[in-house]
Design goal:
Rossmann fold; Alpha/beta hydrolase; AB_hydrolase_fold; about 45% helix
Length: about 260
């Protein structure tokens, strides 16, 4: 298997330290373009696409492999192995943050630190845990996705982006969603929104930065508090911004938080 072709791996910049970027659901590696110019001046950057998104090889999709987030974590580890990476800084967004965490639990030697934007181990409200959504509501959203993928993307992206005064950002995200293979995206969405990785969190001993947004309907503040309490080595920063994609809607604030943590 050609890992570079499968995941459309791209390397930018120069430097002794390597950053690996892991996209959230529905996004390809171009979602990082507001952060990469600053990082590429002094670091080597590794970007890639999940199978089914961007310029990945959709023919490489194996339903059994990608029946859980572990399959996506294995893709990340394949890339690390292929590039002979060691002690990298991983920057992951949303479900990409959880994929990065699962990879670090499995093969911790690859990762020096995890910088996680709006991570959530579980989106469901269960018992005393507040993930943000009732199961019935998520099931309805996913059923809508099954029947009208484009309509679903147009409906959900304003909630994800969370900046109604900047409609161009929402339109950009909806366009990104619609570039995905619909069949693969539907399965990935179910893994993302109905999955529960809370039992995995305490197994991650890699130092983590948790970056959450003050107003995020997808990953509410309670999720950040939960992760900080469960992760052995975590620091939580709350940005005074809205939405679930701060690397797009608030790149300067996001970059400042990431660079400050890396410099410490």
């Amino acid at each position: 298997m050609d890992v570079f072709k499968r995941n459309n791996v791209r390397i930018l910049g120069h430097g002794a330290h390597t950053l690996v970027f892991v996209n959230g659901f529905g996004c390809d590696q171009t979602i990082w373009r507001y952060l990469t110019p600053a990082f590429s001046e002094h670091c080597r950057l590794v970007l890639y696409d999940h199978v089914g998104s961007g310029l990945s090889d959709t023919a490489a999709y194996e339903p059994a492999r990608y029946a859980s987030l572990d399959g996506y974590a294995l893709d990340l580890l394949d890339i690390c192995q292929q590039l002979a990476l060691e002690q990298v800084t991983l920057i992951g967004h949303s479900v990409g943050a959880m994929i990065g965490m699962l990879a670090a639990i499995r093969e911790p030697h690859y990762f020096q630190q995890l910088l996680l934007l709006c991570p959530s181990p579980c989106y469901l409200n269960e018992g005393g845990y507040h993930g943000g959504f009732e199961r019935q509501d998520l099931e309805q959203l996913l059923n809508f996705m099954d029947t009208d993928f484009v309509g679903w993307a147009d409906y959900i992206t304003p909630f994800i982006m969370g900046n109604p005064d900047r409609p161009s950002l929402t339109a950009e995200l909806a366009h990104s969603f619609c570039q995905n293979d619909p069949a693969i995206a539907r399965q990935f969405a179910r893994l993302t929104f109905l999955g529960d990785n809370r039992a995995d969190v305490a197994q991650c001993h890699t130092p983590c930065l948790l970056v959450q947004c003050a107003e995020d309907v997808i990953a509410p503040l309670e999720v950040g508090d939960y992760l900080q309490a469960c992760l052995p080595h975590a620091r939580l920063i709350t940005l005074p911004v809205a939405g679930h994609c701060p690397h797009v809607s608030a790149p300067s604030e996001t970059l400042s938080a990431l660079e400050s943590y890396m410099a410490a």
